[in-house]
Amino acid sequence: MRAFANGRLLRTSPLPLRVTLTGFLLFVLAGYASSLAILVWKTGLTPAGVAAYYLGDDSGLRFPKELHELLENTHFHVFIVPMVLLVLTHVFFMTSWSERARVALTVLAYGAAALDLAAPWIVWGGGAAFAPLKIGSSLLYHGTLFFLAGACLYETWWAPLPPEDGEP
To answer: What string of DSSP letters covers the chain?
Structure first.
């Protein structure tokens, strides 16, 4: 945690730390890409598909989600999502972005995550009219995470090196 607290930039961090963080970021990207792929596969990323997934459909081939299914999914995600965000935003705070931008993107990431965790409940309790909320929240959440991870990878390996002390 010392690496996060002393103002160190990703680009000037020691190679072992940069390699470790790169491994984490690549796994985050793969995990969230697969999460998005599952969402597309299960819902078609359409309001009708989202509604059918959570509320069932008239064909009888899809049954409404039961309370315990939503609880189990929420239980798992309410623990893992904040852990991933905690690490990812800490890494992002090692970038050369302004403090205002880093704080804003961190707030956006946590807000998008909270909305995405709430969206299934809103669709389930409120009906099909709320299905677009699930699509929007998922795209916002995944987009924010992809952006954060991509920005961190860029800053780790390709960002210009800061000038040495005494250089203009």
So the answer is: -HHHHTT--GGGS-HHHHHHHHHHHHHHHHHHHHHHHHHHHHHTTSHHHHHHHHH--TTSSSPPPPHHHHHHHHHHHHHHHHHHHHHHHHHHTTSSS-HHHHHHHHHHHHHHHHHHHHHHHHHHHH-GGGHHHHHHHHHHHHHHHHHHHHHHHHHHHTSPPPPPTT--
The answer to whether residue 166 sits within a structural domain is no
Condensed to tens digits (0 to 9), the pLDDT of residues 78-94 reads 999 999 999 999 999 99
Residue numbers of the domain that contains 19: 14-157
pTM above 0.70, yes or no: yes
Residue 59 has pLDDT above 90, yes or no: no
Is 2 within a domain? Answer: no
pLDDT, residue 164, reads 74
For the chain, what is the domain count? 1
